[in-house]
Design brief:
Largest sheet: 3 strands, antiparallel
Radius of gyration: 20 Å
Shape: elongated
Distance between the termini: 25 Å
């Protein structure tokens, strides 16, 4: 979260344009780098109950999904000439003469909490 705040402070201080993008179904674009199997989905007819499905692409709910998505994004950005920050991996920078573009990949996972008795404190 410190990186996001710092990024926003720099953007505001330098009066840069800021755009936010939400990649629909982003996690479905990650490539699995290990073998993952799952039970047959409901309604799938099979002659044996011991059969499983081998996944070729990531699915929501897998622990590997965020890592797979980020690896694919990083690979693609690097192909376009972006440099990945060595101190903050989700930050990518592209410079060409006076042009500079920064991309910060941030997956928001808000956490909510409340007092168990419904009160404040």
């Amino acid at each position: 979260m410190v990186t996001v705040r710092t990024f926003l402070v720099v953007v505001a201080a330098k009066n840069w344009n800021l755009h936010q993008m939400d990649v629909q179904n982003a996690f479905l674009h990650g490539d699995l780098d290990e073998e993952v199997y799952m039970k047959m989905p409901p309604g799938f007819a099979s002659s044996s109950s011991r059969k499983v499905c081998k996944l070729r692409k990531s699915l929501y709910g897998l622990r590997q999904v965020p890592r797979c998505w980020f690896a694919k994004l990083a690979e693609s950005l690097k192909k376009f000439g972006f440099q990945q920050s060595s101190s903050d991996y989700p930050l990518f920078t592209f410079r060409d003469g006076i042009v500079q573009m920064n991309i910060l990949e941030f997956e928001a996972n808000p956490t909510y909490g409340n007092h168990p008795k419904g009160g404040g404190g």
